[in-house]
Amino acid sequence: MKFVSTRGQAPAVDIDAALVAGLAPDGGLYVPDTIPAADLARPRDSLADTALATLAPWFAGSRIQSHLPGLCADAFAWPAPLRALAGDGDHLLELFHGPTAAFKDYAARFLAGALSALRTPHAADSTILVATSGDTGAAVASAFHRRPGFAVVILYPEGRVSPRQAHGLECWGDNVRAFRIDGSFDDCQRLAKDALSDADLRARRPLTTANSISLGRLLPQAAYYAHAAAHHYAAHARPLNVIVPTGNLGNACAAFIARAMGAPLGEIRLACNANDTLPRFFGGAGYLPQPTRATLANAMDVGAPSNFERLRHWHGDDVALRGAFVARSVDDAAIRATIRNAEARHGIVPCPHTAAGLHLLEALRADGDRRDWAVVATAHPAKFDAIVEPLVGHAVPVPPALAACLARPAQGVRLGREPDALRRMLLDA
Ligand SMILES: *Cc1c(COP(=O)(O)O)cnc(C)c1O
């Protein structure tokens, strides 16, 4: 299986090279020449088994093909329950049971295992450069912490993540360093992309990415959609439709991949916050990246969703792409109201990102939609206690893994947002 760049100016590579490189040398994202099919309609016992079935075709011929069962067992070690909510056909796909309480734990853990397995003995240490709007950095830090041969550099927008998210980025130490950038997530992402496409820098300091632009992050995420959809279909003989809280489009792309591979998924609907680049595009306007706006659902504060290039590549032209997805913007007032009413209405307390998805579900029901829907619960509400608790009027219990992370001391460093500051820091380290 070969992977080409969305920008068409880089040589085709195999999966191993695509994983190690992260970003293609022409600045594009790696995409497969075709999306392979797999028997994903059959429900499997464990999430790790489904992950193996989902990932096996992608790793045919890889140097680490024989490691795949172990990598899947390690990365899909905690459940992703599809929980039925109070309303008919309403579900929550809970992806927040991992070590840093967000869905990104699964794929970050997989990528860390895969890159470790791909490492050749005596290779120079590799630096994982990760721009984060709050949750990616913690998941990547947890996955790579104390892993021999790897260092992690996290760039995050100062003041734009929740206090508990900031703690989760800064509490690691050892081979993990966190830098606060005076800017937005898009500034952080631009810094990371510039460094990754700086051939001179990369020759002196082996660099890779763990953002969802990396295939090693993207592909594993297809597994929990395949698992939930297969079990739902086996029980009800109806496809599962999903509402995905969306920022960089990584999680939604993974749902698209799962469906394209054969998982019994129906519609994939995108819930965005006030950053409405995607709702505007899908509503018929052009693709016009916007400066980021800070919202309550900060992990979705993205004005230039990086995986858009992949969706465009797969759909050929914008008319076809617009026909394939519905995207809606949910503002902070609606997110607040949804959190406030969620216990009475659905029997759950959502994080602000999940609340954006729930809001779209409520709108669909109000329009008379009778299909089976799962809102993807992307993070645990305890990570956003300062927002959620005043709205629901009580404390939200902290899951044990998150509590352990919060109990450790935190330390981060400020870094200027000019590209040279990052370059100098990477070369000095
Ligand atoms: C990262 C994240 C999102 C957005 O996911 P994308 O793959 O970037 O679209 C949504 N919610 C939470 C809690 C996240 O951490």
Automatic annotation (TrEMBL):
Pfam families: PALP, Thr_synth_N. The modification N6-(pyridoxal phosphate)lysine is found at residue 104. Keywords: Lyase, Pyridoxal phosphate. Residues 2-59 form the Threonine synthase N-terminal domain. GO terms for biological process: threonine biosynthetic process. One of its GO terms (molecular function) is threonine synthase activity. It is an enzyme of class 4 (lyase). Belongs to the threonine synthase family. This is Threonine synthase.
